[in-house]
Amino acid sequence: MTIDDHAIVTMTYEVRDGGPSGTLLERMDVNYPFKFMFGTGRMLPAWERRIFGLKSGMGFSFLLAPDDAYGKVSPDHVLEAPISIFYNEREQIEPGLLERGQYITLTDSNGKAVNAKVIDWDDKIVTLDANHALAGKTLFFSGAILNVREATVDELVRKQYIEEGGVRS
């Protein structure tokens, strides 16, 4: 079976910054393979295009430019927020909440969770970077397809991989 919409794919992969010898950013190996339903819109479209049609036992390697991955770093995603939104009920900031380089989760105006990195703060303003952590990076993917199978009825209903013996609700 080949990778196509709604196929369940089990694969290994590595993601490196810039090329095959770049810094390792993420690895899913045979002991902890990545399992997912293809074609549900949860993965990068350009990434899915590169593995579409592959079969069990096939390897892959390719680069994704920032525009095909997580976009370019945008100054529009650097935000300033009043420090008061980080106060607890005693109008204090919890120790460790605001540390440079730390990611915190915010809620946007639509109620969606957004991760942002703390850049700096003073007694009035907190500066946050809501660019994706991999924005601006050219990503090199390499790996192998371990298995491709048809999705079960439950997986098709949920539009996601369900671990064998997984609980139905």
TrEMBL record:
<keyword id="KW-0697">Rotamase</keyword>
<feature type="domain" description="PPIase FKBP-type">
    <location>
        <begin position="4"/>
        <end position="96"/>
    </location>
</feature>
<dbReference type="InterPro" id="IPR048261">
    <property type="entry name" value="SlpA/SlyD-like_ins_sf"/>
</dbReference>
<comment type="similarity">
    <text>Belongs to the FKBP-type PPIase family.</text>
</comment>
<protein>
    <recommendedName>
        <fullName>Peptidyl-prolyl cis-trans isomerase</fullName>
        <ecNumber>5.2.1.8</ecNumber>
    </recommendedName>
</protein>
<dbReference type="GO" id="GO:0042026">
    <property type="term" value="P:protein refolding"/>
</dbReference>
<keyword id="KW-0413">Isomerase</keyword>
<dbReference type="GO" id="GO:0003755">
    <property type="term" value="F:peptidyl-prolyl cis-trans isomerase activity"/>
</dbReference>
<dbReference type="InterPro" id="IPR046357">
    <property type="entry name" value="PPIase_dom_sf"/>
</dbReference>
<keyword id="KW-0963">Cytoplasm</keyword>
<keyword id="KW-0143">Chaperone</keyword>
<comment type="function">
    <text>Also involved in hydrogenase metallocenter assembly, probably by participating in the nickel insertion step. This function in hydrogenase biosynthesis requires chaperone activity and the presence of the metal-binding domain, but not PPIase activity.</text>
</comment>
<dbReference type="GO" id="GO:0005737">
    <property type="term" value="C:cytoplasm"/>
</dbReference>
<dbReference type="InterPro" id="IPR001179">
    <property type="entry name" value="PPIase_FKBP_dom"/>
</dbReference>
<dbReference type="Pfam" id="PF00254">
    <property type="entry name" value="FKBP_C"/>
</dbReference>
